[in-house]
Amino acid sequence: MFTEPKIVTTTDLNYRSYIQYSFNGTRYREYNAKKLDLKINPNRAKSLKEKNRLLAKLLFEFKKALDNNWNPNETKIDVTPVYESEITVQEAFQQFEAHKLSSPYSIFYKRQLSSVSNQFLNFLSDKEKVSTIKNLNPFSAERFLNQFKGTPTQYMNKRRALGVFMAEFVRKKYIPVNYAKSAPRLKTKATLHKTYTKEQLTALLNHLKATNYELYLCCLISYGCLLRPHHEIRFLKKKHFNQDYTQISLSGFENKSARIRVVGVPEYVRKDLIERLTKISNPDANIFSLTVEPYNEYYFSLNWTRARPALLADGLLQPDQTIYSFRHTAAVDVYTRTKDLHIVQQLMGHSTMVVTLKYLRGLGEINIEQLKDVLPMLEI
Question: One GO MF term, please (predicted)?
Answer without folding.
Answer: DNA binding
